[in-house]
Every structure is written in structure tokens, then in C-alpha cells.
Amino acid sequence: MEREYASSLLENAVTELSRLPGIGRKTALRLALHLLRRDPEEAVALGESIIRMRREITYCRCCHNVSESDVCEICSDPRRDATTVCVVENVKDVICFERTGQYHGMYHVLGGLISPLDGIGPEQLEIDSLIERVAEGQIREIILALSATMEGDTTNFYIYRRLGTLPVKVTQLARGVSVGNEIEYTDEITLGRSLLNRTAFNA
Predict the structure, then answer these.
(1) pLDDT confidence bin for 107, thresholds 50/70/90
(2) Number of folded domains in the chain?
(3) In terms of domains, do 28 and 84 share one?
(4) CATH number for the domain that contains residue 127
(5) What is the per-residue pLDDT across 110-133, written as a single tens digit (0 to 9) for each?
(6) What one-character DSSP code corresponds to residue 131?
(7) 166-188: per-residue pLDDT in tens?
(8) Inside any domain, residue 27
(9) Quick one: which of 48, 82, 125, 128 is 20 to 30 A from 158 by CA?
């Protein structure tokens, strides 16, 4: 097969970069050529940081957030409110809530949303581990902080039903987050207010 570029090394780099989400081959080529123009040490530092990230970052056994140890910094912080747990879809949402500076409790990362059309069911998410955490009896409030989409609402309702008669208060974000919006695209002020003005979950 005829190569697109004169160098097979360049072509391999472009191919690998274009595997990243939102990166087409034109952008991948631009990034690869940019790295070629920089000092070799910069490319090495980039490569090593990516390799270390992939090899050394794991997931917290408590909340499933990214972590460099068995338990993440948030879960191991004694200053956090361990009686309140904010349930989010993914790690990006944890970052969004932390940036607001308005929340000081714990998190639980589901790893996705229930979406039958995409073949994602409850058993593929970290829902059982959430129920187990609540059943231990320390948690007093669960904040359902999922995106205001059909998948988010479906997941909210499923979790609410699974919590059943467990002695825990279930709340949700105030609808300052527009219907159809994903958490990561909501500005920090709106997200913070939605969290502070959360309401009882209404099934």
C-alpha cells in the first residue's frame, strides 16, 4: 500500500494521533509537524508523561475517580463530608464540580449512563457499588448530578428505585442546568448554583 507521506515514521505518528477523539488526519499531521519543529526533549517529555499516566493512574476503589493510589485524594481527605455523595457520569464531571468550589462532599463515578440503544445497561455501570456504599449506613444524602438528558433521567430513576427503602435522602440538581445539556458544557457559576439549590428527587 502506497504511503501518504514520505516518511513511514511520520505516517505512523499521524495515524496514532488521529485515533484521539476530535483529531482528524489534518490536525494530526499539524501536531506531528509541530513536534518535529520543537526540541527533541519536548517530544520525549510529552511521550513519557502519557506513558506514565497510562501505566500509573488507576481508579479509586471507593468512588471510581482517577487516582494514583488505591483510594483517591478526595476520598482520603478528612476535611470532606463523607455523609454526602454526588453521583456523576464520568471523571470529567468530577473536575467540573471541583472547579465550582461549592461542593465538599464525596463522589461516585458511574462510568456512563444507561442507554439501551448503545447497549449500555445498569450492570455495566458502577451502580451496585453505589448501593453497597449507601447500605453501609454512613451516607445521609445522595445527590443525583447526571446530565439533563433522556439517558441521565433514566439512570436517575433507576438509581432512585434501587435505593428503595434505604435510609438516605435523594436529591437532584436544580434545573439551572438546561434540559438536554451535559454537565461538562455547563458553566461553573450555573453548575455551582444548581448544586447549592438542589431539590428532593421527584420520580
Answers:
(1) very high
(2) 2
(3) no
(4) 3.40.1360.10
(5) 999 999 989 999 999 999 999 999
(6) H
(7) 999 999 987 654 444 456 656 66
(8) yes
(9) 82
